[in-house]
Protein: 5-methyltetrahydropteroyltriglutamate--homocysteine methyltransferase
Amino acid sequence: MKNIYTHIPGYPRIGARRELKTALERHWRGELTSAELEDAGRVLRARQWARQRDAGLDFVTVGDFAFYDHVANHIQLFGCEPARFGFQDEAALVRYFTLARGRAGAGRDNDGGCCGHEGHPGHDSGSPALEMTKWFDTNYHYLVPELDAGTQFELASSRLFDEVAEALALGHAVKATLIGPLTFLWLAKATDGTPRPDLLDRLLPRLLPVYGQVLARLKEQGVAWVQIEEPILGLDLPQEWRSAFDTAYWQLNQAGAPLLLATYFSPLEENLSLACRLPVAGLHVDGVRAAHELVSVADWLPVHKVLSVGIVDGRNIWRTDLDAALATLAPVLEKRNGQLWLSTSCSLLHVPYTLQPETALAPELKSWLAFADEKLDELAVLRAAIERPAAAAEALAISRAAIAARRASPRVHDAAVRARLARLPADAAQRKSPFAERRLLQGVKLDLPPFPTTTIGSFPQTPAIRSARAACKRGALDGAAYEAAMRAEIEHAIRRQEALGLDVLVHGEAERNDMVEYFGEQLAGFAFTQNGWVQSYGSRCVKPPVIWGDVSRPAPITVEWARYAQSLTALPVKGMVTGPVTILQWSFVRDDQPRADTADQIALAMRDEVDDLQQAGIAIVQIDEPALREGLPLRQGPRAGYLDRAVRAFRLAAAVARDDTQIHTHMCYAEFNDILPQIAALDADVITIETSRSAMALLDAFGNFRYPNDIGPGVYDIHSPRVPDRGEMLALLRRARSVIPPGQLWVNPDCGLKTRGWPETEAALRNMVEAARQMRAEL
Ligand code: GLN
Ligand code: ZN
Structure:
């Protein structure tokens, strides 16, 4: 009998050359029929299964493919499409894309996020898309199922079974995958206010029979395994959710399909014995993030069950240290009598496809990396190393050499960066004077009216701007011409802001493609791939930078643009930099030192930028941190530690500001309740946040907390072209004034305006300035 099996929880779906993105967008434009889109999907699946088989995996995974999002597939599988869409007899695929993107005329769809990283619920009349939110602590966004106390489930889609049949017909051994019932319910939101425990109570008994039908059908089709994903076992679960696992899995087991319960992203901790005793045939655990639990799992899991260890990191792009992996596996193998499944820690959805087309990466760096396909190869080497060590010797030696080279590389380690961090004075993260004193000095210098108006940084990225940037990248536009084009854009933005009567101006960010890539490209220690795309949501992909070495800033980045913008006007122009936590969060981060140390290095680079900006006469600098919250660990335990380090990194970047330099920060979300002390600890002079869609409800939290510094609650939603009138914004501002002392309030939109056009931008800002003037009149 075989002892070692290999598999993966899932494979990327967007296509190595983003074929799915292309097909989807053509379909949405009406250039590709549904049948042609289905064909494109079939081709991609056949290719990814062939890749898995060729890499020697024992099963191909089926059910990880989705035209938009795998959670949305489950919504159709279980027949729980929200009634609010009023579907009649539309085809399944039409309904699917309506769930995902909203109905035309709904004002916004899910393809227009403000920063390419975040999805946003729609709000206008019509049928806005399902809300999107981050899949655990990844940058992938799923569509949130909408349930209520009355939701009924039924087996309503044959897509999964069709795909299984497709794989079987191609001769593959199939492991189907499904999100488990508890995780599915956990990820959903109640649209009728039903408290979560009640929703669980009511809906689980209705959902389980449908799972039973799905499992019975998969079994009948002849799948070898069904992977049932319950990543919530790695969360701090309320007791009622933990208990629900026992009943649920007792019932699912009745279907008789061999179940592989899959967990990932987080240690099991208090759920470890629960996960081990559930009546399933196997358990997959994350052997990277929960390596310390492996021996306990090997002990607790009954010997007749399969143990699958995700030993190759599915969340990062570094080559596995195979010797270390084998050492981690050794005691587990011993306890399991040599029987083990090897896998990646989680689905490979979160990494790019393959290193092969990366011709521009430095060969040395490239030899340190492993994308999805290279990770499959690593699994094969690990299996060989266990089964037939002699046969794996050569592959192991290559891997060992790459790991050793990376460890010793002088290019990774920059003594000056390390020395600077080590020598930082104790007060490096501390502004010179307390806020109250800074505020007076800044007030004198800036001489702003009450309720000062400003924007978040970007102005519309027009087709002209994009094509200038593309031409410059291609070499069709030389540096001087590009610079002239950007200067013209800056001047245009400044003149329009002056005409609108805004108080604090911005240069408009015309020169930036992306708020992280732009800085990464100019920092040492960062590399960029040509094809390293990862799905963010739907057809939207991101290409995260790779932080591979010590970070430093060889030269000023934004200073000349800011200086030029300021030279055009007597009003203050806000300098604009991306914060260290956000740069870290939206990159692939080196794994050879704690993330927080990398954050500190980025912070020092940005600190120099802030300093240079103030030396250049910029009186206000905004340090954007929209991703501060995204880095929060999944479990409560490590959260305080994360927040401490995140706050420190921000402060390291900011504290170089003189007392009379005003530091702003910006965050694009509305959940602050649990992190208000840390937000206050950032000690930014002004924070601008997204609030308009929660109708300022969030401000209550700031008010109750007595948030000490200035605050600019967004008065209008920038995710839609809709122009709110003055009265609407005035109502929000009056509401804000009732909870926050008026002297602390700023007036600004929710976020940057780069996805908008100029006409609606100008109209909305004009109304916003009028609303602020009215507020001043009411003082
Ligand atoms: N300054 C950035 C902008 O206005 C902020 C974007 C963001 O927070 N996502 O575009
Ligand atoms: Zn924002």
About this structure: Confidence is low (pLDDT under 50) at residues 112-124. The pocket of zinc ion (ligand 2) is lined by residues 114, 456, 626, 666, 668, 751-752 (CB under 6 Å). Residues 667 and 689 are 5 Å apart (CA to CA).
